[in-house]
């Protein structure tokens, strides 16, 4: 009778231990899911911006646009009050201009590329609506961009104030616009980028600039935020820089506010080289640990010196690494780091372009 009771007690403890371990594994999976979600937000909010910056810097370096007169000889370009020069229509995906909006920060600069495809808006800066006019022309120079993620080029449109400068730089000219107003519309209001948005279909009489982006900023874009600016003047690149993009240093000299410094991380075109380095470091430490210490943790468990641990994903990964505790932690961290890099390089981009929910959350529609 006593033996039967003991056996029953063991069975109950075994059953209880099983469910306890199962709950632990489920908890670990939930933690992993939460971490992946947080990493996806980091990828969306940060890494896509670094990639976009890399692509834009490469595009600027690949062209032969002259630099404005900078350095000790920097001067303010003379505003031209005559009709602006007519610009030829660019080919699809060509660099149209570089945009500066001091309200967004002295270092804020974005490329404007011909076209509004997802690839352009996600990686190459801002997109020029091909059906709208060129900078300085009578009509509407309309540009689309992300409000959130991918460098969020138009993330701060709500900070613009009347009179703020919006400067367009082409190969040879500056075109300076002044912000006037904004409106929030549903995506079906295509007239906002009409040559005459105030009176769609009528002949335009003003030179305008329009910025379109999504609204609200952090959730599914049900509306569009439309920002308008009016033309102020144009200037020649060879004459210097617009006063709106200048500052005076301690010596009283004119300086260009944008130093065009590229962030260190954005210099990476891909995370694959980093992944290769991480993998090589892991392999070297793994081999060294296996030779020097073998697997002391597993040996202690198998020999009975240590109690057999409960089932655990994270704990199991740590235990199968060779070496002393510090070495095993280093190896485990390298594995987790490699997984994060793989998520950023392949998994998250695939999810954002394939999974419907993530597509809706991540991709910006240019329909206005």
TrEMBL record:
Name of the protein in question = Class E sortase
Asked whether the UniProt record includes Zinc among its keywords, one would answer no
Write down the InterPro entries for this protein, in alphabetical order. Answer: Sortase, Sortase_Class_E, Sortase_dom-sf, Sortase_E
- Give the transmembrane ranges: 20-43, 271-295, 326-348
Q: Does the keyword Hydrolase apply?
A: yes
Pfam families xref list: Sortase
Top-rank taxon, per record: Bacteria
Q: Enumerate the GO terms in the molecular function aspect.
A: hydrolase activity
Q: Which UniProt keywords apply?
A: Hydrolase, Membrane, Transmembrane, Transmembrane helix
Q: What residues make up the catalytic site? A: 146 (proton donor/acceptor), 214 (acyl-thioester intermediate)
Give the span(s) annotated as Disordered: 66-90
């Amino acid at each position: 009778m006593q033996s039967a009771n003991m056996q029953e007690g063991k069975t109950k403890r075994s059953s209880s231990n099983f469910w306890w371990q199962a709950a632990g594994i489920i908890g670990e999976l939930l933690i992993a899911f939460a971490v992946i979600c947080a990493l996806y937000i980091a990828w969306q909010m940060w890494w896509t911006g670094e990639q976009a910056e890399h692509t834009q810097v490469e595009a600027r370096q690949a062209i032969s646009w002259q630099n404005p007169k900078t350095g000790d000889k920097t001067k303010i370009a003379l505003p031209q009050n005559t009709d602006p020069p007519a610009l030829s229509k660019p080919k699809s995906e060509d660099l149209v201009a570089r945009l500066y909006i001091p309200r967004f920060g002295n270092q804020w600069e974005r490329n404007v590329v011909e076209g509004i495809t997802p690839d352009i808006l996600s990686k190459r800066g801002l997109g020029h609506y091909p059906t709208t006019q060129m900078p300085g022309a009578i009509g509407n120079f309309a540009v689309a961009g992300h409000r959130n993620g991918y460098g969020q080029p138009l993330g701060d449109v709500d900070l613009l104030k009347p009179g703020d400068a919006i400067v367009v730089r082409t190969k040879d000219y500056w075109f300076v616009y002044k912000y006037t107003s904004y409106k929030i519309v549903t995506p079906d209001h295509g007239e906002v980028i009409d040559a005459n948005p105030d009176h769609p279909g009528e002949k335009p009489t003003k030179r305008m600039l329009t910025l379109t982006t999504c609204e609200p900023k952090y959730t599914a874009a049900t509306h569009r935020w439309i920002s308008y600016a009016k033309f102020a003047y144009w200037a020649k690149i060879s004459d210097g820089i617009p006063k709106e993009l200048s500052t005076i240093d301690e010596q009283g000299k004119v300086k260009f506010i944008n130093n065009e410094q590229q962030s260190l991380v954005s210099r990476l075109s891909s995370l694959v080289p980093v992944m290769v380095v991480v993998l090589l470091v892991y392999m070297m430490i793994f081999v060294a640990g296996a030779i020097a210490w073998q697997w002391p943790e597993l040996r202690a468990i198998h020999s009975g010196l240590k109690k057999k641990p409960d089932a655990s994903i994270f704990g199991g990964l740590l235990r199968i690494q060779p070496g002393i505790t510090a070495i095993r932690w280093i190896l485990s961290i390298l594995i987790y780091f490699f997984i994060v890099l793989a998520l950023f390089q392949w998994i998250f981009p695939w999810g954002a372009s394939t999974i419907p929910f993530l597509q809706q959350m991540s991709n910006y529609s240019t329909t206005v």
